[in-house]
Structures are given as structure tokens and as C-alpha cells.
Amino acid sequence: MRVLIAEDHALLRDGLIRLLEAHDFEVVEAVDNGPRLVPALVEHRPDVAVVDVRLPPTFTDEGLRAAIEARKQVPGLPILVLSQYVEQLYARELLTGGGAVGYLLKDRVSNVADFLDSVRRVATGGTAMDPDVIGQLLARNTRDEPIGRLTPRESEVLGLMAEGRSNAAIAAALFVTEKAVSKHTNNIFAKLDLPPSEDDNRRVMAVLQYLSAR
Fold first, then answer.
1. What is the CATH number of the domain that holds 76?
2. Number of domains observed in the structure of the chain
């Protein structure tokens, strides 16, 4: 898989390159600033881009804005955000822009295998969302909106779905049967006015797009 990295911290950037290349990823380029990111993404069209939110020159939201701009030229470009911050405005825009997406918080990535799995999942059309990011998106909704219709258990299932987990993994995490998870997911789609789908990636993306638009 071909990966492009956007990270201004030299040690972390070098560490990501070494880690990914050691696990059979091809790092096509690693940039350290926002202005270079868009042309690099358009030029290389990687299988997935691992992007920090805050890049030079202003260290605000260059990474996310560049990723969104690149998607206008390369529709569906898979983006995995790896950052210390949750930039809610541009995170919602990224989620609704189409294409595979992930949003992980650096301080919470403690397992190399899980991180690599997230990179692969996004590269192959899936979703990898940190629970804290999902929590903030959920918190933006009120009980008067469709998300407020969910029961506490359905909200738990939704959060795990958004992390990219399968029904079997959700069942194991919640100590329930897969049949129970299937029932909860069908209820979630009905309450959110979203058509159910047997394709887990499309299902998760549809839920995330709904949440991000609120």
C-alpha cells in the first residue's frame, strides 16, 4: 500500500516512515508543511494519507484543510488524521466529503498493531475513529435531533461501529450475541433514517456522515 505522510515533527515523521516501511507499506512522500501537502496528494494519489491537523506555517488547521482541498481534485482520497487535537468544524467537513476516513488521537495510540490495522482499514475503504472523537461528535447533538432517539446501548454500538469494528467485535466488546448487535444496528439505522446495509464500511461511513452533518 502506498502511503503519504504529513507531519511537521521530525522525530515522529521519521518514526512513522520507519514503522510503515517495516510493515510492507511504501511511503511515497513525507511532507512537513501545509502548502506542500495538496500538490503531493494530487501528484502521488496514495492509497492512504496520514495527516496531522496542525502544520506550518500557522499551526492551526492546515492539514485538514489541505486534505479537504485535495479531495476536490482526487475524489474519495482516503485520509487518516493522526493528531493531538479534534478540530470539529473541519473534521465534520472531512467526514461528509466522501471516501474512507479515520481520526486518531496521538496520545491514545498505544498499540502499533492497532495503528497499522487502522491504516490498512482506511486504505481499503473502511473507517477508524477514536472513541473520544466520536464522543465529541455525539455530544454536539441534542435530544431533539434523531441521534437523541438512541438508547444508551444503541449509542455504545454506534460508537464501536464508528471505530470500524465488525458485528463480531462489537458483540465481544459488549458481551452480547451477534444477533443482539444486529438488532441494535437495525434500530440505529431506522432511528437515524438511514437504510441498513450488509456492507460494514458503507454502513459506518453513512452513520459518520450523518453525525458530522449535525
1. 3.40.50.2300
2. 2
